[in-house]
Prior knowledge:
- It is a single chain.
- By secondary structure, this protein is α/β, with parallel strands linked by helices.
- It folds into 2 domains: 2-61 and 119-193 and 293-365, FAD/NAD(P)-binding domain (3-Layer(bba) Sandwich); 84-115 and 196-292 and 373-405, D-Amino Acid Oxidase, Chain A, domain 2 (2-Layer Sandwich).
- It contains 14 helices and 19 strands.
- The strands form 4 sheets. The protein has a 7-stranded mixed beta sheet.
- Helix 2 (30-41) packs parallel to helix 4, helix 3 crosses helix 10 (321-339) and helix 10 packs antiparallel against helix 11 (343-372).
- The longest helix is centred in the last third of the chain and has 30 residues, at 343-372.
Amino acid sequence: MRKNGPELEADMSKTPAVARRTALVVGLGISGIACAIALHRAGWLPVVVERAPARRRGGYFIAVMGVGRSAAADLGVGDRLVDHRAESMTYVIDRQGNRSPGLSFADIPINPYLTMRGDVEDAVWKTLQEVAPDTEIHFSTTPTAIEQNGDCVEVTLEGPQGVSRRWFDLVIGADGIRSTVRRLAFPPALGGLQRLGTMICAYALQEDLPTLPSGVGGQIIEPGRSFTVFPFDDRRSTVLFSWYAADPDAERKGKAAEQIRKAFGPEPLGPILEAALGQLETSEAALFDIAEQVRLSTWYQGRVVLVGDSAWCPSLYSGMGASSGLAGANVLGKRLEEHGDDIAAALADWEATMRPRIAEFQKSAGTGIGVFTPASDKAIRIRKRAMSLLTNPIVRWVFSHVGKFLPVMQQRERPIF
């Protein structure tokens, strides 16, 4: 990979050669790397900028559904994408570790790959290194202005060597839920962040929790707050705290562990939660944020387009973030190749293909919140009855064989072309 240095930074002021269409990809996460692969496959020259000084490592639990796996296969990721599901039971537990049978993502009848965000990013990264080893990548670099002028986009970039300008045929914002590209190129009237009413904190454990050794999952479910342990077959578990917040902005400004202690008090936390919070205080890669979706009336403006969380963030509760990001990148590359010089038609076709499925994924987040974090005692009782039914051996067998044909499952399984 060509990475930023003095020579390369100097080149950034030059207009790219017109013989090959160029695209700036902002963001080096799953969606951004997948976009670079898809652009290269379509005959474009991708240039990637990333605000962080280096690639992020580790991460939290994610599920890759059929939508994402088929896109990954199209992109050439192949067997780099691996299922790390644990084969043991997941339990509903209380703060002292008393437990009863429960369900987890492993019980979803379409058999998603259960892994970590960092594993998926590594898979697409290694694929990009293989298929396009000369891709320009600029770390510690971010756009500060985006101006469209007919058939090109002028982008002002700020990086280690100062400020520079460059022209592109297309700009792709794959820079996450608080996208800089969205802020610079999409007026507020087109939409933006929509809150779901909860806070989330997700991270990987360094040590096993009391009563929950590696490979064993668990959930503490209380009115308006929950704690979930996601197990893997070959590494420590990851965890997710989720709770309803009266003032999300104030909580986001505080320290994660302190806010969780307040949200899960005043009762004693118990050994499991205490151990989990102890590890959070030393975690270097925790996600602590307001649970939000991105709702926009359009995902592109002229020759600037958003992909993944920057465009539609379905939220962790949907389980479709990584999958939809992979699919969005894959389909975008296909449409750009199919429509040739007609970029406007390519973007319109791409959005028309993606939007119906994304709408379903976003809608599913409401159900996901109810499953992860029931808001009341009544909601918990309803959830408990449903879990009791689904853990019945006969019902479980039927669900595992028939459930995959349910529309909500097919939306996650069927490829997006």
